[in-house]
Amino acid sequence: MPRRADIESILLIGSGPIVIGQACEFDYSGTQACRVLRQEGYRVILANSNPATIMTDPDFADATYVEPLRLDVLTRIIDKERPDALLPTLGGQTALNLAMELVEAGILDEYGVELIGADAEAIATAEDRERFKEAMLEIGLEVPASGVAHDMDEARRVVDDIGLPVVIRPAYILGGRGTGIASTPEEFEQVAAQGLEASRIHEILIERSIAGWKEFELEVMRDRADNCVVVCSIENVDPMGVHTGDSITVAPAQTLTDVEYQQMRDAAFACLRRVGVETGGSNVQFAVDPATGQQVVIEMNPRVSRSSALASKATGFPIAKIAARLAVGYTLDEIPNDITEKTPAAFEPTIDYVVTKIPRWAFEKFPGASGVLGTSMQSVGEVMAIGRTFPESLQKGLRSLENGRLGLNSDPAEGALDELDDEVLAAATAIATPGRIFQVEALLRRGRTVDQVHDVTGIDPWFLDQVLAIAEERLAIEAMEPDGLGRRDWRRAKQLGFSDAQLAYLWRVDPSSVRELREAAGVMPTYKTVDTCGAEFAAETPYHYSTWEEEDEVRPSERPKVMILGSGPNRIGQGIEFDYCCVHASFALSDAGYETIMVNCNPETVSTDYDTSDRLYFEPLTYEDVMNVVAAEQPVAIVVSLGGQTPLKLAGLLPEALVAGTSPQSIDLAEDREQWNSLCRELDILQPPGGTAVDLEQARAVVSDIGYPVLVRPSYVLGGRAMEIVYDDTQLQRAMSELSGFGSLGIEGGLSAERPVLVDRFLEDATEVDVDAIRDADGDLVIGAVMEHVEEAGVHSGDSACVIPPPHLSDEVVAMIEAHTRRIAEALEVRGLVNVQFAVKADEVYVIEANPRASRTVPFVAKATGVPLAKVASRVMLGATLAELRTEGLLVDRVVGDHVAVKEAVMPFNRFPEADPVLGPEMRSTGEVMGIDLTPGLAFYKSQVSAGSDLPEMGTVFFSLADRDKRAGLEAAGGLTDLGLSIVATSGTAEHLRDNGVPVAGVVAKLGEDGTDAVEMIRSGAIQLVVNSPRGRGPRADGEHIRAAASAEGIPLLTTAAAALAAARGLADWRHFPLEVRTLQAYHRGITRDPEGSAP
Question: What CA–CA distance (Å, rounded) separates 859 from 920?
């Protein structure tokens, strides 16, 4: 069937900020959809609040709305754009839920907008737990015994019928949010209540627990002619009871018989047809009883899912791209396969390798979190590895995680397991944790049988036998001498996934000598191609993975090659922003005539799409793996400064002549505290006083010179890892002891643990400022933007809201900041991007640090100013001058207009209720949003809505302010009362407000005092907004409890008087001006407010 000619414009809803359960896989799917729909000639309208995505670049849609994803805002966009159709299946659960809200509110009918991809009936059948259960039973598919409840009384009746233990699954959720297993009546009461709260329609399915069964997923597609294909089968290593997003998963499924697989395939197609997904990709999850082989359907996502990105990268089958074409009328047999260019999409992919996905957690960021895995997803990212065998891909995946591990043990971190006796170790493996796979290997190596370990863990014996093969090979390697291995011995070790670094550890030699011996034995990696068809047809797309065989499939080419090292797994501190920069580099360098080679291991990203770069290597970002690609491809340059800390750690190890842009020496100069201090003294630029220390005694000596409070932090880390503000000797002792050993920092691995600790005077009450700039080889420099942080210094820049243009800095201060940035960039001989952080106190400008690399603010600056910083920087790193790029038209002037852009962080505290939600110098946010409008108030308000903190338009606000904040807080409180909100406050704050004419409805007791305290009021629902600005140790401790209560109850929380003032102004502007939405393209052309001050 040809493409539909009766529709001309299509609205796509993105997935919003990166959150746990919904990461950048939807940037990947949305970007693919935008591209393909525009190629087909449709006008594409995009709504998404995330500035860090490639998807929200103005080049990818005809009209790009970086606006809050809320019903009223989407209604306004529909009113303005009048799209013919809405495609809701490529923006995750966020888009699906919003599409259903638009249907239920009658908006789509009112404006004549057709739902394509999946209609409302299909979405409701799949997402509503009761309807889905009935639909499956109707077609003869088995589901676990269950019942549905909409309140606690109903829930108790259901559990009385079914019996404990049960699994509670809310309707319309993502990442298993609100899901849990209850084994006791007390657990049931808690988990059921949380599930009802998490569901959009207050509905939960209460299901007999099948924890311990095997879990599988099928990624399936259907077209309007009822052609169905299985794109990929995926098997979880962990049994049921661990969320699939938190489990190691393997493709294709390894332990199903052919009969079982065909039964599952037929069931998935029957499910797809009954639910009514007419076109597109869906994900069907099954559980299989390991004792009987009984199969039951768990759930189905009627949309592109997290697993779709994995399946796409695992097979080379672009699910989102094909789903978009199916939605506009094509059938699978009409869509060609990009990789073979000979077969249609109706051919099911066949793969002759094993793919392993391993989650990346960030429990080290959340002290107090249990670290135990369950039915609610907690991982913040993932890696994927490809090998010819499961052991090879498993070990490649483990060394890709950027957590200091070299593979499946055989590394320094295994020492922690060596200290445990067999019984303690066996007991530990019974609990699902991020470390369980390492414990399993250690247990098998010590002589426990596969059956014994299976009985404890529930992991299928086939997987355990594969791990045993790794353990046995390790014991054999340890018994050999390095120079005694023959070619066959080397290849066996490599085919089982052992890295040179692991072998060096086992033999207690240097990795470089292992590499020399291996190469002398003639053992080199070969690169195979992901071709979708098991080599049945020739592959036209160079998408490669390494293995250890005879034949190499890398094709020679003549163009100069540039290798771009990606950012590895998403984790807190290093997210999608760096992938954005890598993708922009690939686009810009390809346009400039280079052949671009992407090396990365993250299946969620646009960078690992096979058509982003000329060549893609899905490989770990370790020295060994990167150098193997260098040897195979012989690039003229390697870009290391756009992918965050992961590639930057390799800068000093790679051949210096190949490192593009700023030299490794300059990178080291910025990181090395002694050299950096000396540089700032030479430049006569103020710094907070400080020093370096390698132990507690040296740290105390520094503090005796500069006084408390101090900021203690390691060097060479990202995301404020292990930073702490310290107020006294006891805290200093604890902070230093944590940093001195492997400790909490060990998860990051690498240089950071070996570098000295930095101890600096903490500037209280200072305003923090960020600057992104680009400098070329001629010394020309362009300032991207000066960003003012809303939160005080002491809150990590990644967790603070920041504003362009800076609203409260004088022209003189901004000019000084820009001048300092120029001089620092010149002194560091920067070639490319540099980010400099300043603190401003009483108009004095202090430099905090400079990072000669891409920062996480680069995408935000590009969206706010219209200047493609990452593209410009990548060209500058390869030798182009800013003057040349201006002539070319790549470097444009900053847009001139009256708009204000606010970047706000999105926190994951709802996933870690045990963790203290206080903000500080260590970054905790998973993602970001942008608010953009013509007043600072409107922009700030939109940023809060986008981040999930809807500011209340009525109700009660709780105020508790530190003394220094009371003046600014007075204006904020006055503004809120003028809007009709009532104020309650702690005694000191209440007195100050009343003395200055602001009415206070009630005085709240401080924690521990007589009377009703803030925590009690928050929990009772009496408070709709919390304003608490902590200072010092005492109020900070009070603030922790208040924040925790606000976080638990989902109440908006503002931690500075500046943020409260911005909120008051935002609410005032929100009431004063009618809701207006504008495209990013319009902002980049320049929009000015009319002279009367109204927002047009």
Answer: 23
**Mean residue pLDDT across the chain:** 90
Q: What gap in Å lies between CA 994 and CA 210, rounded to an integer?
A: 59
pTM above 0.85, yes or no: yes
Beta-strand relationship, 1053-1054 and 1025-1029: parallel
AA identity, residue 128: D
Q: Please give the angle made by the CA atoms of 681, 682 and 683, to the nearest 5 degrees.
A: 90
CA 899 → CA 130, 787, 844, 896, 905, distances in Å?
47, 14, 28, 9, 20
DSSP 1010: S
Q: Is the pLDDT of residue 926 over 80?
A: yes
Signed CA dihedral, 568, 572, 573, 576: sign only: positive
Q: Single out the residue of 325, 464, 400 nearest to residue 40, CA to CA.
A: 325
Residue 566 bridge partners (DSSP): none
Contact 90, 30 (CB under 8 A): yes
- According to DSSP, residue 251 is labeled E
DSSP character string of 468-522:
HHHHHHHHHHHTS-GGG--HHHHHHHHHTT--HHHHHHHHTS-HHHHHHHHHHTT
Q: Which of 213, 341, 336, 352 is nearest to 286 (CA)?
A: 213
* 916 band by pLDDT with thresholds 50, 70 and 90: low
CA-CA distance, 535 to 513, in Å (whole number)?
36
| CB-based contact 1043:1028 (threshold 8 Å) | yes
Name residue, tokens 């590639």: 647
Return the bridge partners of 837, or none.
770, 849
% of residues, the chain, pLDDT over 70: 95
Tokens of 17: 């900020």
Q: Quote the CA–CA distance of 176 and 1068 in Å, as a whole number.
A: 37
Residue type, 36: V
Q: Work out the burial of residue 374: count CB atoms within 10 Å of its CB; fewer than 13 is exposed, 13-18 middle, 19 or more buried.
A: middle
Q: How many CB atoms lie within 10 A of CB 755?
A: 17
Alpha carbon distance 40, 25 (integer Å): 23
Please give the Cα distance from 54 to 763 (Å, whole number): 36
Measure the CA–CA gap between 806 and 796, rounded to whole angstroms: 18
CB 756 within 8 A of CB 694: yes
Name the one residue in this structure whose structure tokens are 């391993």: 358
Residue 858 one-letter amino acid: V
In angstroms, the CA 952 to CA 1050 distance is 12
Distance CA 505, CA 510 (A): 8
Asked if pLDDT for residue 746 goes beyond 60, the answer is: no
Residues above pLDDT 90, as percent of the chain: 68
Q: In this structure, are residues 36 and 92 in contact, taking their beta carbons and an 8 Å threshold?
A: no
Residue 449: partners with Cβ closer than 8 Å, 6 or more residues away = none
Q: For the chain, how big is the Rg over CA atoms in Å?
A: 28
Residues 258 and 275: their CA atoms lie apart, in Å, by 26
* pLDDT value for 724: 82
Q: In which residue are the tokens 């105390």 written?
A: 700
d(CA 726, CA 740): 16
- Exposure letters 1000-1014 (e unless 16+ CB within 10 A, then b): beebbeebeeeeebb
Tokens read off for 409: 């043990």
Residue 17 and residue 946: Cα distance in Å, rounded? 8
Separation between Cα atoms, residue 953 and residue 956, nearest integer Å: 10
> What is the distance between the alpha carbons of residues 64 and 45, in angstroms, rounded to a whole number?
6
Contacts of 674 (CB under 8 A, 6+ apart): 692
Average pLDDT of 980-995? Answer: 94
Nearest to 48 by CA among 77, 82, 84, 80: 77
Given a contact cutoff of 8 angstroms between Cβ atoms, the answer to whether 831 and 876 are in contact is yes
